[in-house]
Amino acid sequence: MKHFDNFSRPLEYISPMDKHLRTVIRKWADEEVIPFRRRFDEDWKEHKLIEPAFDKLMGNKGLGLQKALFPEELGGWGLGHSDNTFMISYALSEEVGRADTGMAVAFLVTLWPLTTILIEPHVNWRLAKEFAPMFCDCDRAVFSALTMTEPQGGADIENIGLLGGKTLRTTARIDGDEWVINGHKLWPTNSAGVSRLFGVPCTTKPGSNDRDDFAIIFVPTDTKGVSEGNPYEKAGMAADKNSDIWFEDVRVPSWYRAHGPGLDARTFLEIIPWGQVASCGFLTGAMLNLYERLYEFVSTRTYCNSVLKENDAVAGVIGRIAGDIDICRILGHEAARIGDRRNMPYGNELGSEETIGKIRNIKDFISDKSVEIFGRAMDVLGAYGPDRNWDIEKHWRDVKIIQLWMGGKQLCQMESARYFFDCKTL
Amino acid sequence: MSVELDKLFIYPKHWVNEDAHSFAATIRQWADKEIISDRLNYQQNYSRLFPEKSRKLGIDIGLKRLVLPDKYDGYGWNSPSYAPAILTAFTEIGRGDAAIGLVNALEYAIFATITMQPNLKYDLCDALAQRYFSDKLKTPTAILPGAGLNNQKTPLFRGMSVLAGIADDDNESVISGTNLRPFGFGKSADLLCVVCAQSNGKICLAFVPADSLGVKKGLPIKQTGLDASENTDISFESVRIPKEYVISRDGAVEELYVWLNLLLGGVSIGAAMNFFEILTDWAQNRTIKGGMPMKENPLCASVLATVAQEITSARLLCYSLSQIMADPFAWGGIGGEGIYTIARMIGSSVQDSAINALNRGMELMGSAGYAKEWHVEKHWRDIKTVQACLCGIAADIPVKMDIARFFYDCKEVCS
After folding, report:
1. Which of A26, B23, B339, B380 is deepest in the core (most CB within 10 A)?
2. Helices and strands, number each (H, E), in chain A
3. In whole angstroms, what is the distance from residue B368 CA to residue B282 CA?
């Protein structure tokens, strides 16, 4: 029997850590998540089942992945210095995503705001030292969140290329040696009381589209004035909690700003490729699991009294599904490699229009293919397609969410057009 | 929204008589009052409210009696000429709740095989009408052909495995089969309409009261959508039913498929139309690029257009099918090869269009698309569940084989 590892990936791109990381995470997935995930939907509020699995993935008593980006000197693994950070992130996303994309996003989003201060060349050592104990010295899973979306228009915040943060209504003003933050955010992954640290995109001058006025400020969630709502109920991704967050005269030290005028906007632009590459990994991880489950179904169930996979017409359908998985996996690795080339002479800056346009384009493509093939696979299963015991429907609900987040499909199309066609006003 | 849906999603209104329009208007009021205006409560208390809302529609409004002939105190919509009317009614139900649409579609389709002119089967109607059309809400379901298991050679209905066997024993028929999956509502079903194979391979329909000795229901199955239709696998351990509970005439199983494709087409279109209402509101009131209403942006407008296009074309296709069904004799009857093939073809296209409309429209709604509070994701899950179950097995391949057989006179292909 073929294995899902048979799906292609450009081997010359693979990080030396890849095999080891995948082995341990796959073991974790097979033992701690996959046997329980069919009950995750009912656990969306409490996380009684989900939390122990997170602890074993992220906490020091488990695999300790939450400290991966921190420098070795501070107790981390030093991945922020690696030339393969994107490829490693992709492998992590894919392996965790194979088990549960909701867990994958909650885990990777923890690293997401930290990329602004822990990835070369933008390491903020003072903040790294400040927050390292929170993540590196804890036995249990510790989460963080990047609070982007605002009530008046989510994707606008991410469309910094055009709007430059002009629509942001979460404000930060300096008062002595403190930032005072006010605003309302929606939907961040790892909200609803999950996180210990927020990265908060905000503006120091409301209505300004000057990138110097855009700020990312770190806010420990136990700071006075921070409040969070109850988790939203969603179509899927029970392991990812989202809620409203309010900042009311929240005061943090002035040096909790990621970098300062200009560089904050730049690192925010760089956040987008991280999120999109991880999304690609979640999607192809789910696809690998789709293949496993579909393989079993089409090998054991019959149409015209022969196993489904041996019927020429059905083979046409499942062949296309497998072909699409193969292509998407190659593309996902390519997206990751675009990110890792940022420091190469032939690479591009992470926040450049080219990098963002190309990576968003790949994420858009893989998202569309995921939605398509999961829907198609459910139809192949027919009456068993909507059955949770076959797992495919769970991924079908989850991959749709991935397609829609981070500005969704249309923003991906705009970024792609902006780069390839030199659009000026999109 | 200010514009009436029927003025946007135009359809051949003259195919539907005044009584039917009036009945559909009543269902629309039921959907608006009982479900759409109370969605959050309905969502949070589904298991309690589903029977209550179903009762109002089925018994108080009288939907359940549509398929019954006058003789049984029915409304007498038991003629194929009512197909456009019944489609109109089911579109309105789907706009409210696809699960209520499904249970009623199953009931109408199942009973259409015994009440519909010219195949009215009085002996079975006599036996079942009192029992299943009283003032107490009853739930019927169907067990259709589907996937077989490897190393088991089974009788086939157009390539799909028929896993229930039936044999005569004196005045009774005896049904056997293990772990058969109903279309939905297996857990609560009172009556099971089972596609069975006789020992000579002939396929028939058996009406099995769920309380018959030897009917075993399994554990509840959690599924993507249609939350109220709690399903389970059902086994038949030498279940005995009167012989008159079996319909062996040619075309009976095909008729069941034809009605299900029409009515579930209506249900999914109705759900998609309610999604359209929600999406329209969203696109009007949400802004992008710092101030422009979403619907005024050309890219968003093109996606919105696709949604409207899919729903409109699906609705028109369904009405075309219903009108063909309304005068079926030129085409060999409802269960004849022609109408069966067209129904499967249109049914498949309509479900594709409905899910595509949802998938595309959700792209504009971002997180509101998958948040339960916006009620979009429910329609999306429900339609997908209907689509997958209607496929039966192997995606749309069985439908494609039906089409190939009909149009190209294939003799061997997957039959």
Report:
1. B380
2. 13, 9
3. 9
Whether pTM > 0.90 for this model: the answer is yes
Cis amide leading into B118 (omega within 30)? yes
The sign of the CA dihedral B119, B122, B124, B125 is positive
The domains spanning A4-142 and A264-420 adopt the same CATH topology: no
Please tell me if residue A38 touches chain B, with a CB cutoff of 8 Å.
Answer: yes
State the nearest Cα–Cα gap between A218 and chain B, in angstroms.
24
Chain segment B267-326, per-residue pLDDT in tens: 999 999 999 999 999 999 888 776 788 899 999 999 999 999 999 999 999 999 999 999
One-character DSSP codes across B329-371: GGGT-TTSHHHHHHHHHHHHHHHHHHHHHHHHHHHHHTHHHHB
Which domains occur in chain B, in start order?
Answer: 5-138 (1.10.540.10), 141-247 (2.40.110.10), 252-408 (1.20.140.10)
* Residue A239 CA, distance from chain mean position: 13
Fold of A264-420: Butyryl-CoA Dehydrogenase, subunit A; domain 3 (1.20.140)
Say what the alpha-carbon torsion angle B390, B128, B329, B22 is, to the nearest 10 degrees.
-80
Domain spanning A4-142: which CATH class is it, in words?
A: mainly alpha
C-beta of residue B192 within 8 angstroms of C-beta of residue B141: yes
Question: For residue A296, what is the nearest residue in chain B, using CA coordinates?
Answer: B150
Tell which residue, A371, A383, A379, has the closest CA to residue A408: A371
User: Using an 8 Å Cβ cutoff, are A201 and A278 in contact?
Assistant: no
Residues of A with Cβ-Cβ distance to B389 under 8 angstroms: 382-383, 385-386
What is d(CA A271, CA A351) in angstroms, rounded to the nearest whole number? 8
Domain ranges of chain A: 4-142, 146-260, 264-420
What is the three-class DSSP state of A171? strand
HEC-encoded secondary structure of A63-115: CCHHHCCCCHHHCCCCHHHCCCHHHHHHHHHHHHHHHCHHHHHHHHHHHCCCH
A105 at B interface, C-beta within 8 A: no
3-state helix, strand, coil in chain A (%, to 5): 55, 10, 30
For residue A248, give every residue at least 6 positions away whose Cβ sits within 8 Å of its Cβ, in sequence order, or none: A182, A225, A227
| Tens-digit pLDDT profile for residues A218-252 | 999 999 999 999 999 999 999 999 999 999 999 99
Which CATH architecture fits A146-260? Beta Barrel (2.40)
CA–CA dist B336, A393 (Å, integer): 35
* Helix, strand, coil % over all residues of chain B, rounded to 5: 55, 15, 25
Cβ atoms of A363 and A284 closer than 8 Å? no
A207 touches chain B (CB under 8 A): no
